[in-house]
Specification:
Chain lengths: 289, 289
């Protein structure tokens, strides 16, 4: 497992070199959990935790990065958030690079409080956090500062994978779409943070569902790590995601949530084998030339 | 207190008619708390809860709306979030209209999970939630749907109060800045939700620190409730905030956090009286003709 003394971009590079670019999204939903696991748990948050820890076991040979989705844990209040924290700590302890997908964004000391929660060993202790840029540079910069202090990383939303993601992100101003203006800001935040791998600590979220824009952004931001959602259940293919990589094979992690973690009916007793098969297949698809 | 059978916009109108437009932001910070209160608590989250509940007592004559800031509670992990939940439930039980300032934003079922957390009686049970629009219409719409089902409200970030808020929000496309494009989307979501007061359930966050843009948006969005940050500690004046109101005196709630809740040194034994005085003065400033 990557040593924690490495910088965030180098920890991520080591994980991708070892296991490939698959990032397994932990998006637990009560209705999708294995029925027996849910029945055996004292509460839904406890079931989320047990399921997520089991997923870590199952996908470890195939993925070096996991991404808990805060919304599904917050849906169960403080108990859900406590379960999320235990999953994040367990994943980190097992050597996964962890991305807390919380899409936080606020200004000044409020942004700093969110960043402190994300990176503090006493709270979530994530390796990286997803951040929303709508509030501007002085809203993102407290996250950049906190990430640097914690040797953590960020993934700033640039061009998202949802069908309507272009409504504002594609508005053209001064000849370039908003997502390019955000991308250029990300490049500036990222530039002083390059690790030995040649990539930096301030990454971008760029969906696999828009392969042309993905290729455009890869060319424009050569030293920015991309977190690529939209592969798998959202309709993006491994071929679509290929545009996210640099010639050296680094530069992107590609997320699959439901596709890897819920490839079974809740009543299926063979659910563990199906997760293993889905993770193996995703790893193979994403690392095939 | 407004009956819960009223729609969100009418509950908010009743609160503003009764107490004026002051919204008290609950942004607890350990270093700012009354020292004796902090010392008496078993933990920082417990102190946040005790302080917030005391603030509710003190400001009740002067404000009908309170806005807990999720970041400061999340900074203390699940215990902090549990305290936030108890504050939200207590405020609602006392008849305050509650705005959970969490600036959530995500797509599809993930957005629905955040919205469920915000409005569910079993979780935060807030009257309203702040939402970030960067991901587009299909990302905001699950919040709109959930708010309608819960008879709750939203405040979508349109033009924020921070000095750098214009970096992306002011980019001009097709002759209008991004914040106007977002504002027009808010107007469309809001239109089907008008209450008896003539305002709707999908509001906008518009900072007091940009009075010209505030006036422009008030004219463009006559039936949209505005949540106006930036008054007080952030430098906006009551005169600046006046542009947010409609001729009928409705249309906006004006937030003050530190200015009302922390107008004292932590060692000051007279902190309660200072909160009362600050809330009284803010109410008077904001309701003066």
């Amino acid at each position: 497992m990557p040593a924690r003394t490495e910088s965030f971009p180098d920890r991520l590079a080591a994980a991708v070199r070892r296991r490939g670019p698959l990032c397994v999204g932990l998006d637990p939903r009560a209705a999708s959990l294995p029925a027996a696991l849910l029945a055996a748990a004292a509460s839904v948050p406890e079931a989320f935790e047990a399921f997520s820890l089991k997923v870590l076991d199952l996908v470890e040979p195939f993925a070096g990065v996991v991404k808990p989705q805060a919304a599904f844990f917050e849906q169960y209040g403080a108990a859900g958030m406590a379960a999320m924290g235990r999953v994040l700590h367990a994943a980190r302890a097992r050597g996964f690079v962890t991305v807390l997908d919380a899409k936080r964004g606020d200004i000044a000391s409020t942004a700093a409080a969110y960043a402190d929660a994300a990176f503090s060993p006493a709270v979530w202790h994530a390796d990286a956090l997803t951040v929303n840029p709508y509030l501007g540079a002085d809203a993102v910069e407290p996250f950049v500062t906190a990430a640097a202090a914690a040797d953590g990383g960020l993934f700033v939303l640039v061009r998202t994978s949802n069908p309507g993601g272009g409504l504002f992100q594609n508005l053209v101003s001064d000849g370039r779409p908003l997502y390019r203006a955000v991308g250029d800001a990300v490049a500036a935040w990222n530039a002083p943070t390059l690790g030995a791998c040649g990539l930096g600590a301030v990454g971008a979220v760029v969906g696999a569902t828009n392969p042309r824009e993905l290729a455009e952004l890869r060319a424009a931001l050569p030293d920015v790590w991309f977190l690529v959602p939209g592969y798998g259940a959202q309709g993006g293919t491994a071929a679509d995601a290929r545009a996210a990589f640099r010639p050296d094979g680094l530069g992107a992690i590609v997320n699959s949530s439901r596709g890897v973690t819920f490839p079974f009916h809740p009543a299926d007793p063979a659910w563990e084998a199906k997760i293993v098969a889905a993770a193996r297949q995703s790893q193979a698809e994403l690392t095939a030339g």
